[in-house]
Fold these 2 entries.
Entry 1:
Amino acid sequence: MIADAALKKLLQSQMMYARQVAERGAFWIVPGVLTLGYIVFPAIDQGYRVEKGWTKDPETDVKMVQAAKMVRMEAYFAAKGMPMPGTKPAAAEEEEEEEEE
């Protein structure tokens, strides 16, 4: 019984200490989170933030414009019956593969 009473008293003192620390520490939660966000968030790589969906990809609009431009160029050259500049006809690619072998 003496051990139980001592254990109970020790547990109560530990609970009181934990409550005091929690009350004192609660005041530091908001400044701590703000400081962490101010220092750590900018240090995170932008690609990682975009991948996780935290921020919008800044190059999305540029990629969409470039894709639309390529579609228009392909349609224009197909209508003219000309190969698109910078691309090789399929026959030329096959000849290069045969020469490499």
Entry 2:
Amino acid sequence: RQLTDWQQRDFTAPIFGIMSGCAAITVLRNMGVMRKSPRWMIVLPALPFYLMPYQIIYHTREAEYLVNMMREEKSSKFAKKLRVMFEKNIVNKRSEILDEIESGAEISE
């Protein structure tokens, strides 16, 4: 329950996306990109600078949440089902992630 509450209140990805998108708009304006276009059009070339950091951080944090959820498999039906599906779908039956989840250690990068 505490883990899910943390995941739902995690604003890291939107904050990073907004910061990098605003920085991209500032840099693109200073470089003179789309100078003759309407002002709002600068958003179009700045979109990738928002989306890429947002997606990378979002999926990294989501993976962290799911791994921690698998560690607490006794706490909910979803966690048990997630663990069973992960164990069933791994290619290598000797998974480093499963070993570290069972030991409770932090997973190295």
